[in-house]
Design brief:
This protein is α/β, with parallel strands linked by helices. It folds into 2 domains: 46 residues, no CATH class; 90 residues, 3-Layer(aba) Sandwich (Rossmann fold), CATH 3.40.50. The protein is 43% helix and 21% strand. The chain contains 7 helices and 9 strands; from the N terminus they run E-H-E-E-E-H-E-H-E-H-E-H-E-E-H-H. The strands form 3 sheets. A 5-stranded mixed β-sheet has the order 6-5-7-8-9, with helices on both faces. A two-stranded antiparallel ribbon has the order 1-4. The mean pLDDT is 91.
Length: 164
């Protein structure tokens, strides 16, 4: 429920009181979407668009260095989705620096880069938003770590409380 002193005046709403005067009412209403929109705006402002992995609508992007690694990239995308991650692929024929910059500006929390070496050894190079370096990990270990991080804190607390 919300008390709204502004909207009745904007709507031109009034009632006649006991002294025959026009009075602007106070409005009480539910603002399900209005409240959600304000909350989302506050969250985005608080995190400056740099949402944690568990909250980000797009958690990771798999980007290729060369066209030769497209098949491995598709395999990584499928495995990431199977692990429960919200992931997209960037298989365009663009330079990797361009892709990194573009996805960094879009505030994607994790960029999984795959090249010939990664494809041959079943690795991924992980670039995290806001950090300069990258970390090369085996595919399974990287996806497990990201999937664990993608669990919301309240769900994680419930899971740890339920485990013996």
């Amino acid at each position: 429920m919300q008390v709204d002193l502004n909207l009745p005046g904007r709507l031109g709403a009034f009632y006649i009181d006991e002294n025959s005067n026009k009075v602007t009412p106070v409005m009480l209403h539910r603002a399900m979407f209005g409240s959600m929109e304000r909350f989302t705006g506050i969250l985005i402002e608080h995190y400056a668009g740099h949402l944690p992995l568990w909250l980000s609508p797009l958690q990771a992007v798999v980007a290729t260095i060369t066209l030769d690694t497209d098949d491995y990239a598709r395999e990584v995308i499928a495995a990431a989705r199977k692990a429960g991650l919200r992931v997209e692929g960037d298989l365009r024929n663009e330079k990797i620096n361009y892709k990194v910059r573009e996805h960094s500006l879009a505030k994607v929390p994790a960029l999984l880069v795959v090249g010939k070496k990664e494809a041959a050894e079943r690795l991924v190079s992980i670039r995290r938003l806001g950090s300069e370096g990258q970390q090369v990990q085996p595919l399974d270990a990287a996806l497990k770590a990201l999937a664990d991080e993608a669990v919301a804190p309240d769900v994680r607390r419930m899971q740890t409380a339920a485990s013996p």
